[in-house]
């Protein structure tokens, strides 16, 4: 029996901005890491996919991450709002 977490390999998709531009690879990597560590690996529910909408602050840094977590077995989704500061540290999580 393996000790692997059920959400360890869940794909995380960072959606394009409202203006249609892609985020840099570094920004996407940071966002994916944050979602995996703070949401997926702390959950006991198995998920199939995660999609992240990024709401930017006036200075261009991520301010709020709206994450849609698609459950693996029930065809439902959990929406989570994660507020981050300019250094990508989590300020609050609203489920």
Looking at this protein, list some descriptive labels.
1 helix; 5 strands; single chain; 5-stranded mixed β-sheet; alpha+beta
Quick structural gist:
With 95 residues, this protein is of the alpha+beta class. The chain has one domain.
Task: Give me the secondary-structure topology.
Layout: E1 12-14, H1 25-40, E2 47-56, E3 62-71, E4 77-84, E5 90-94
Parallel strand pairs: 1-2
Antiparallel strand pairs: 2-3, 3-4, 4-5
Structure in words:
With 95 residues, the protein is an alpha+beta fold. It has one domain. The protein is built from 1 helix and 5 strands. The chain has one helix at residues 25-40; strands at residues 12-14, 47-56, 62-71, 77-84, 90-94. A 5-stranded mixed beta sheet has the order 1-2-3-4-5, covered by helices on one side. A hairpin with a 5-residue loop joins strand 4 and strand 5. The protein is globular and about 40 Å long. It starts with 11 loop residues before the first strand and ends with a strand. The mean pLDDT is 91.
Strand order of the largest sheet: 1-2-3-4-5
Kindly name the structural category.
Answer: alpha+beta
Number of strands: 5
How far apart the termini lie comes to 31 Å
Number of domains: 1
- What share of the residues does DSSP label as strand, in percent? 35-45%
**Topology order in helix (H) and strand (E) letters:** EHEEEE
Give the biggest beta sheet: 5 strands, mixed
Return residue spans where pLDDT drops below 50 for at least 5 consecutive residues: none
* Gyration radius, in Å: 13 Å
Helix content: 10-25%
The chain-level mean pLDDT equals: 91
Shape: globular
- How many distinct helices? 1
